Amino acid sequence: MATTMLKALNKSLHDALDQDEKVILLGEDIGTLGGVFRVTDGLKSKFGEHRVVDTPLAESGIVGSAIGLAYRGYRPVVEIQFDGFTYPAFDQLVSQLAKLHYRSRGRVKMPVTVRIPYGGGIGSPEHHSESPEAYFAHTAGLRVFAPSSVEDAYSMLRQAIACDDPVIFFEPKRRYHEKTTAELLPPAPDASPKAKIVRPGEDVTVVGYGPTTYTLVDAAKAAEDEGTSLEVIDLRTLDPLDIDTVAESVKRTGKLVVVHEASRTSGIGAEICAEITERCFDYLEHAPLRVTGFDIPYPPSRLESHHLPDLDRVMHAVDTVMRHHEATEGAAK
Amino acid sequence: MSTQHIDVAAGCLPTHQLLNVDGKRIPDEELDHYLKDLKEADLADFLRDMVVLRRMDNEATALQRQGQLGLWAPLLGQEAAQIGSVRATNDDDFIFPSYREHGVAWARGVKAEDLLSVWRGAQASGWDPNEVNIACQQIVIGSQALHAAGYGMGIKFDGGKQVSVAYFGDGATSQGDVNEAMVFAASYQAPVLFFCQNNQWAISEPVALQSRTQIADRAHGFGLKTWRVDGNDILAVYAATKAALNHARHGLGPAFIEAVTYRMGSHTTADDPTRYRKSEQLEEWKAKDPIDRLVKYLHEMGADVQSYEQRAQNAADDLAAKLREAITSMEDPKAEELFTNVYAEKHEPTERAAKNYLDYLADFEGGE
């Protein structure tokens, strides 16, 4: 039977609540309603109002009280209802949650998971389609997970909850209804998620995460028809960033395209391009390229198809690095 | 009333005062009950605590002037508010302090040199929160109030008997986090005590800029059981804190205390209060000094005050000498500590950054 990402996330929370009595869920509308996306559907009735807690409408309050619960020995999992509502909690995330282990000299652990449904493409009003991951990847002390597959949504959420560090867990909301027929397996003990080559290739390394991974797989299929072989890498975690896997790939392909919905400047793509330029300079046959959202506030939804990297924009970037490659190959002949 | 120098509207709640400025005991129908177990020896201990604390504070200011500390936030004048409240808590009540609650931490057994080491810049925090049941000191104004609310929710959910205590100042009451904390604590009827030291000043800003009503009245509006006390009267602070903890501990919901006191010193050693407040105000508050007041009361009681003062003085001298020696001989941390405890679990980029930098340093050392 096929399982959706929503169901996989629900099962992940269910299993974590079931196996560790210190796991506690906090968020707006997550209890009686089961969450606006129904990720927490049925959990309050099964585990009770002291394990699945509807909170007042205050994001800083949600994250700040989760920190207090962690001081008390709990393992809180909080839901921020939409990406654009994360910012009221910014101090608690960046100055408190991220830094308490360091500040306390390792004496206080902050095993808090912050789930954020993020990204665009669902036709929503302002503040419901943003991709704020770079803020958190930039902040030492936080781990940032961004799964794309249904299987990863299950297992990486289990890993995030089990982790003694705070994890900002980005859920690709426009892929919530993706399905898998594979069995959902808990992660191996002590395994931490690494970048994954989801489709091997030879000509160009294309790197994405979360919602764009699906776009990259589509691009790889389209490119194959044109005789170009793309190696698709799903980063899975943005902190730690698994540059080794990307570098190993680029050393083979000599070409890199990074794709994300978030704005371009100072984004995850910029970091990857810089790291790869430092590590693989002699292997590069073309400057690394980025295909990203523009440096604009998230636009009204009737314009979002321009803003979100789609198959055509990815293919355009792939063509650019390939044309250059073909031109120089031609010149050498 | 005279404790308010600026236009804050008269409040709905009375200001409890059990010792007036002359050290005369004023009966208080509601709070006297909470003093019944206090013996003369306890009052002598309060005196010692406040004298030692004031000495520690003065030593810290001096050490900062001498370059031994990077900064210090004096608590001069707030000794009764801090000692009176913390001495009313149980050891397993968990406290979330701001950066000025040195007296609270010290009274729970934190060594003065460990406290000061943070202000020296030698380490990020000076104690193990789980050993003394006090969180790390908080510098962002008011953020810790939410941690206290969450901790209190945890006590409520797991059926504990402790109370979670948040300390903050009058300035913090303007912060969203403090207001959200009161909402959360009230919603879940969590055992949380919000202890506000209204010391009249948030750096240069008078309390009227934060609140046009008495702070206690605002807390009352959140549905918190609230007391307003003379914060320089250690008996009123102690009794009200006992009452508030009793209320919270018995499942009656969160409580709030506004302790009306005065920051007699600067905001920090980097501040110059003469730029924004008049010396007359300081003189007015010197007459309400919390230590003098307790001494007067002990005299009223016919206690052997001289021996108590001598004992307190000896303890203060002892602490000062040891503190100075410990701070001036404190070694700087090693470069490795830069990268330690950023994460609780293995984190390869941090390990790589540490190795690269330490190798770089080692190259220099090798080249010399």
TrEMBL record, chain A:
CDD domains listed in its UniProt record: TPP_PYR_E1-PDHc-beta_like
Cross-referenced InterPro entries: THDP-binding (IPR029061), Transketo_C/PFOR_II (IPR009014), Transketolase-like_Pyr-bd (IPR005475), Transketolase_C (IPR033248)
The keyword Transport is assigned to this record: no
Keywords: Oxidoreductase, Pyruvate, Thiamine pyrophosphate
Cofactor: thiamine diphosphate
Ranges of residues in domain Transketolase-like pyrimidine-binding: 3-178
Superkingdom in the source lineage: Bacteria
Protein name stated in the entry: Pyruvate dehydrogenase E1 component beta subunit
Organism of origin: Glutamicibacter nicotianae
TrEMBL record, chain B:
Cofactor(s) of this protein: thiamine diphosphate
Key words of the record: Coiled coil, Oxidoreductase, Pyruvate, Thiamine pyrophosphate
InterPro entries tied to this protein: Alpha-ketoacid_DH_E1_comp (IPR050771), DH_E1 (IPR001017), PdhA/BkdA (IPR017596), THDP-binding (IPR029061)
Domain of life: Bacteria
Pfam families attached to this UniProt entry: E1_dh
The Dehydrogenase E1 component domain, residue ranges: 49-333
Coiled coil spans: 298-325
Entry protein name: Pyruvate dehydrogenase E1 component alpha subunit
Species name: Glutamicibacter nicotianae (Arthrobacter nicotianae)
